[in-house]
Design a protein that fits this description.
Length: 182
């Protein structure tokens, strides 16, 4: 059972009776013009307002940490954290914690993060002054553990660790091997 009614203001309202509970539903916009988009608000004014879309407040102002770089790239691409997590092979909470700078990514994820960013972020982008800095940057940007890097260079794992801590200078053999890898 449907019936039409006119209110005092003029627009037509359709009320429809549903079931025995006496519930009524207001059907908005029935009997009105289908669209008013082509009618200007002020017919005597022909001004068009243009402005930039406001920047997302979550967008990092300064790229100080790896998490800031990840968030900037994600927002630039218009991706959700779950999309980034799936592409990096981590959980959504890991991406959230990286972006909020609660934790830093484990070094094994650095190659995937660098591929996602499409550039090497600071502090991994600098070229080391010493052979030890170059060695550490090479190892981290490729996601190599001390053990894997030591096998690649052909030395003991503890020697690499001592070099990175500054307790030991790399041997000529290691320096020669590193110059080939770079």
């Amino acid at each position: 059972m449907c019936r039409s009614m006119r209110s005092k203001s003029g627009p037509e309202i359709l009320l429809k009776y549903f079931g025995s509970g006496g519930a009524y539903r207001y059907i908005h916009g029935r009997g009105r013009c289908s669209s008013r988009r082509s009618i200007p608000a002020f017919p005597f004014c022909s001004v068009t307002l243009n402005s930039k879309k406001p920047q997302n407040p979550a967008y990092p102002k300064v790229l100080a940490t790896l998490g800031d770089h990840i968030r900037k790239r994600r927002l630039d691409l218009g991706l959700w954290q779950k999309d980034v997590a799936a592409s990096l092979g981590v959980t959504v909470s890991a991406v959230t914690n990286w972006e909020l700078n609660r934790v830093t990514p484990y070094f094994t994820y650095l190659p995937k993060i660098i591929a996602f960013l499409e550039y090497v972020p600071s502090p991994y982008d600098k070229i080391g002054d010493t052979i030890v800095e170059k060695m550490r940057l090479y190892r981290l940007t490729r996601g190599l553990s001390l053990e894997k890097f030591a096998k690649l260079v052909g030395v003991d794992e503890s020697s690499v660790a001592k070099c990175e801590r500054g307790e030991h200078e790399p041997s000529k053999k290691v320096i020669k091997k590193l110059s080939i890898l770079s």
